Amino acid sequence: MTRRPGGMPAPTSAPLGSRRVALRPLAEAIADRYFDEFPEDLERYGEVARPWEIYDTSHCLQWALLDAQGVVSLDREVAWLATVLSARDFPLEHLARNLELAADVIDEQLGEAGAQVGSRLRAVAAGVRTT
Prior knowledge:
Elements: E1 13-16, E2 19-22, H1 23-37, H2 40-45, H3 49-68, H4 74-87, H5 92-110, H6 115-129
Antiparallel strand pairs: 1-2
């Protein structure tokens, strides 16, 4: 049985230019779209599906925003996450789609300020599909 996320808490905000972006509302919007497309994950993972989706997505959003600042490599962080998820038999196509959904939400909610972030998320999603 999969447990709820523990250990390091999910990040709650990340910088975008001179402001801080709240990650939880973005991650929740992404989770709504994700489970609309992949309801089978709710059945597969049960009550921990949504907490894990929000947890992992919050980290991906933070990495994407920090990547735009030149602080971390979104490619490297997502490659690590893909390795972890693959070892757990999680379909990497779902990870790729989640990154695309994250890009859509970033574009919609952050507008021009988040354009680079959305573009990077899409590029990394394409990379996940080729691994």
